[in-house]
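User: Can you recover a sequence for this backbone? Please restate the input before giving your answer.

Assistant: Of course. Working from this structure:
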C-alpha cells in the first residue's frame, strides 16, 4: 500500500507542473533508414556473401498522448520503403524535458513488430513468404514547438537487429 501511494504521489508531482502541455496528438514523418553492409557465411554453399548497404526513404504516421512536458506515449505505423515491403507497427515511450522555451529533448524507448516479404528455399525452390519479427528500438529526439498546436520533430533511432540499422527522421505533430 505504501509503495502504491508513493508511486501515485511521484506521478502526480511529475504531472502537475506541466499539465498545460498535455494532450492527444497525431504525428507524421519521413526519414532515412540505413543498414550497414556485412559479410555473411552460408554454411550450405560454403561461401561468404557480401551485400551492400541499404539506404531507403521511410514514412510513418502515429497517434499519441503527451502526459506532460516529461512523458509521452505513441502508437504508429512505418513503411521502411525497402524492396521487401517492410512495414512495422510500433509503440514507444518518450521521456525528456524542455531545455528552452520552445525546445524539448527526449529519449525514446519502443517496441515494434516488423513484417517483410522474403524469399525462402523450400524443396530446392525459392518461394515468397511474409516474415514477422519483433524488436526493441531506442534513440534520441528533439521537438521544436512552432506554436500552441504544432511541433517540428527530429529523431535518431537504433534498432535491435543485426547489421546495425539506424533511422533518422524529421516530421511534425499536431496536438489537439
Amino acid at each position: 500500500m505504501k509503495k502504491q501511494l508513493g508511486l501515485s504521489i511521484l506521478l502526480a508531482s511529475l504531472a502537475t507542473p506541466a499539465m498545460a502541455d498535455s494532450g492527444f496528438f497525431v504525428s507524421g514523418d519521413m526519414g532515412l533508414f540505413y543498414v550497414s553492409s556485412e559479410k555473411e557465411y552460408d554454411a550450405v554453399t560454403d561461401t561468404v556473401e557480401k551485400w551492400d548497404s541499404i539506404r531507403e526513404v521511410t514514412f510513418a504516421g502515429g497517434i499519441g498522448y503527451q502526459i506532460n512536458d516529461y512523458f509521452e506515449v505513441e502508437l504508429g505505423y512505418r513503411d521502411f520503403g525497402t524492396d521487401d515491403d517492410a512495414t512495422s507497427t510500433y509503440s514507444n515511450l518518450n521521456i525528456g524535458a524542455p531545455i528552452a522555451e520552445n525546445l524539448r529533448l527526449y529519449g525514446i524507448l519502443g517496441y515494434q513488430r516488423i513484417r517483410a516479404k522474403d524469399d525462402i528455399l523450400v524443396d530446392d525452390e525459392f518461394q515468397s513468404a511474409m516474415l514477422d519479427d519483433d524488436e526493441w528500438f531506442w534513440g534520441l529526439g528533439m521537438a521544436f514547438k512552432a506554436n500552441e498546436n504544432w511541433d517540428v520533430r527530429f529523431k535518431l533511432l537504433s534498432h535491435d537487429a543485426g547489421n546495425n540499422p539506424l533511422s533518422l527522421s524529421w516530421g511534425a505533430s499536431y496536438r489537439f
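That completes the design. DSSP finds one helix and ten strands in the chain.
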